[in-house]
Amino acid sequence: VQLQASGGGLVQAGGSLRLSCATTGFIFDDYAIGWFRQAPGKEREFVMAINWSGERTYYSDSVSDSVKDRFAISRDNAKNTVYLQMNSLKPEDTAVYYCAAPSLKYYYTPNMRYEYWGQGTQVTVSS
After folding, report:
1. Where are the beta strands (DSSP E) in 1-127?
2. Looking at per-residue confidence, does 51 or 60 come out higher?
3. pLDDT digit string (tens) for 52-63?
């Protein structure tokens, strides 16, 4: 199983980026996918996830409410890819963003363990 995150870069505050998570090696349609981020000097945190069909999305209670209003997760099962659309970016969104998948099919819980991780893509938002 491989996941590859891409689409990061340097953007000014207020700008937008769309991250992609391309996957291979498993039946993509059967698995939820999550996005995480890790800012310099901080622990990795969950951002949001999407279930296997794309019908349900999940947000972290610990992430700022403003993320819920500015970020959107989606998936294209035909392309085995999950997207994270990030709008109105702020300097505090600066982090390495990772996508991840659990080992269990058709399964999602807020604190579930993610087994497979992509390499991360750097997002830097300048003020």
Report:
1. 2-6, 9-12, 17-24, 33-38, 45-50, 57-59, 71-76, 81-86, 95-101, 116-117, 121-126
2. 51
3. 999 999 987 777
